[in-house]
């Protein structure tokens, strides 16, 4: 059956055990990659990049603000797609990924808002304005928290998964609004520094460490998502025999103090 | 390539912007670190609790087997 074979990879990917074992092999590399890139990018950006002609040293906050904002938005799409796959194909693993993406996305959105506020004070003279970009990012934070809260709001895990997935999908409306908010409305927030359609409006000496930090944040996101999903897999599959064998291998003593 | 600062003192002060930059850096790193450390701790606790439960069940099974021996 050709069609049967073609879908094998899809079913295998939906298996929590397959995910657990495969990502277990990736983890050591991801740790090294994430910590290495993060350290390189931060030292480069904070100590070596030239200061901004207008903003001085406060612009160095960009090395955390922009990568965190990128992943807060990309992570939302990932969460919504995972929810959609769960709804359509009833894939358990997909719901576990969706649930794991919620706290990570909320934390990254918080970092984007917090570093933005701290950057705003010396640059705009205020920590907070209710403009389109900032308000739509705050809504993103609430959407992430809503998806997370719905996971715990029902007795049945199944109902919680569906409710979370639907909220995640409805919330995707907000993402293009965030992207376009600096163009559609008058705002204090500066327009995007990096665009896919044109060269960056930044000197290469400033831009290169930012690129390193963006790659570092993608690597961080992959690492965090895998770690959270693995916790979820063990929690929901603790009765499975492969989980027992794995636990006995990892913790032969078993006595926690 | 050279650093933009002549001393650690200057690096810390950043010509007056130090408090803003370092607050942003430290809070961000604390949140990012928490996102990695928490699942590692939870996973360890999960594994230990799974092992303890399977040990309890083994003891119970052994006890049940012992009782049925006595019945004979």
Would you spell out the secondary-structure blueprint of this structure?
The complex is a heterodimer of chains A (257) and B (72).
Chain A: H1 2-6, H2 8-13, H3 16-48, H4 62-89, H5 92-124, H6 132-151, H7 157-171, H8 174-184, H9 204-236, H10 241-250
Helix pairs in contact in A: 3-9, 4-5, 4-7, 4-9, 5-6, 5-9, 6-7, 6-8
Chain B: H1 8-13, H2 18-71
Looking at this protein, list some descriptive labels.
heterodimer; A: 257 residues; mainly alpha; 10 helices; 75% helix; B: 72 residues; 2 helices; 0% strand
Q: Can you put this structure into words, describing what you see?
A:
- Chain A has 257 residues and is mainly α.
- Chain A has a domain of 175 residues.
- In chain A, 75% of the residues lie in helices and 0% in strands.
- Chain A is built from ten helices and no strands.
- In chain A, helix 6 packs antiparallel against helix 8.
- The mean pLDDT of chain A is 90.
- Chain B has a domain of 34 residues.
- Helices cover 83% and strands 0% of the residues of chain B.
- The longest helix of chain B has 54 residues.
- The N and C termini of chain B lie far apart (85 Å).
- The model of chain B has no long low-confidence stretch (mean pLDDT 90).
- At the A-B interface, helix 3, helix 4, helix 5, helix 9 and helix 10 of A face helix 2 of B.
Estimate the strand proportion of chain B. Answer: under 5%
Please give the most extensive interface between any two protein chains, plus how many residues each contributes: A-B, 49 and 39 residues
Helix content of chain B: over 70%
User: How many distinct beta strands of chain A?
Assistant: 0
Decide which structural class fits the backbone of chain B: mainly alpha
Number of helices of chain A: 10
Q: How is the main sheet of chain A built?
A: none
What's the N-to-C terminus distance of chain A? 53 Å
**Individual helix count of chain B:** 2
What is the arithmetic mean of pLDDT of chain A? 90
The chain-level mean pLDDT of chain B equals 90
